[in-house]
Amino acid sequence: MSDSDDLFILEDPIFVNKELLEISHLPEEDRIVGRDEEIKQLANAVNPAIFGQSPSNVLLYGKTGTGKSLCAKYVSRQLVDTAAEEGINAAYAYVDCAQDSTETQSVQTIADSVNTDENDIYIPDKGISTATYYKRLWRILDMRYDVVLIILDEIDKLEDDDILMQLSRAGEAGKIEDCKIGVIGISNKIKYKDRMDERVKSSLCEREFVFPPYDANQLNEIMSARSDAFREGVLEDGVIPRAAALAAREHGDARKAIDILRYAGEIAQSSDMKTVPEDFVVQARERAETDRFRELISGSTPHSRYVLQALTILSVDNADNNAEDIGFRTTRVYDVYEEICRQEGSESLSLRRVRDLLKEHAFLDIIEQTRHSGGSAEGSYTEHQLLEDPDVVQQVLEDTIS
Length: 402
Ligand SMILES: Nc1ncnc2c1ncn2[C@@H]1O[C@H](COP(=O)(O)OP(=O)(O)OP(=O)(O)O)[C@@H](O)[C@H]1O
Prior knowledge:
It holds the Pfam family AAA_22. By secondary structure, the chain is of the alpha/beta class. It has three domains: 35-211, P-loop containing nucleotide triphosphate hydrolases (Rossmann fold, 3-Layer(aba) Sandwich), CATH 3.40.50; 214-297, Helicase, Ruva Protein, domain 3 (Orthogonal Bundle), CATH 1.10.8.60; 302-399, Orthogonal Bundle (Arc Repressor Mutant, subunit A), CATH 1.10.10. It is built from 16 helices and eight strands. The protein has helices spanning 4-7, 36-46, 68-85, 103-114, 130-144, 162-169, 192-195, 198-204, 216-224, 239-250, 254-270, 280-297, 302-320, 330-344, 351-363, 390-399, and strands at residues 58-62, 90-96, 147-153, 180-187, 207-211, 328-329, 367-373, 380-386. The strands form two sheets. A five-stranded parallel sheet has the order 2-3-4-1-5, with helices on both faces. Strands 6-8-7 form a three-stranded antiparallel sheet. Helix 2 (36-46) crosses helix 3 and helix 13 packs across helix 15 (351-363). The chain is globular. The chain binds adenosine-5'-triphosphate.
């Protein structure tokens, strides 16, 4: 039997403050890089809240990892503190609409996060009607707050606009009397607004800001500002620049950069290393990609996976042949899909169903669809292109065979 001193590591040799590298961690201002202008504009839009007046409703756009959630949470937190100094009772609620995609789930999350112990109002996880959740939410707001900011992250993942309608009209519809509501919607789909109901659009999109991607220097700075997550001297010099260069090559995604840095440390940890060498960055990037992708396709049905596999096979073949075209027409994907079904001994779905499954993958940003008008002889058609690295997709599909 081993001595307990041998069994457990008593001191982490790599990390000293790993929370700094958790994606949900909200950094202090001096660790936020290159977003002064965005923070200023957002603060300006919600500024009336400091005086207990209605803040402007805002929509933030930009690709993943461009700091939208971070800036929205940071400005909201600052607003709550500054308002308190002015004698205004403010709060903010954060909703991840990818998780709380129904009206009931999102109103429950908002009500639960603004509720306090002093209220005699109970917000159960489930079991009451949507209308009751709203009633309790309005009561809490009127009883406790002068103003509340509601951040709806990944707002495009909401099943419908019902909650937006309710929030934007709560005041004029007489649901709340004393409390003002401001909504900060966040999306990485620039076309999201086109899908919105006209009335909701005019009220929710009073201000819009687009967050540009980071360049390699900014990613470098973002990671350097958190390098004290590691013990002193553990990070070898080339690690951060290499991780920044890799993350910038795609689209300047800070989430990816931070994930790579954390994984590089974890790989060093599990290899019993005392330092993190630059070489580990490549492996860390692959792990970051694979993990993100695994999360995206977790829970997808076998046929949805066959469809993806078909597109992956076409993409790999093309890459092997150095072919130029990277998009594939639905019928080509369907042919390969049918072949996969034959091999799997499964009956294939109709072309129309496969088209729907491709649409679902496009919705999750796994693939991109481009509509082409093929001229009078051909009619229009859609091409599908894999956005993920085909090797990563193949790996994950193999690893997660049910
Ligand atoms: N300017 C920045 N300075 C410091 N850290 C940053 C900055 N921008 C982003 N980050 C960090 O990168 C990670 C991803 O950022 P964030 O979640 O804000 O991106 P996002 O644009 O909301 O992406 P998504 O659309 O995927 O939600 C977070 O951990 C965040 O703290």
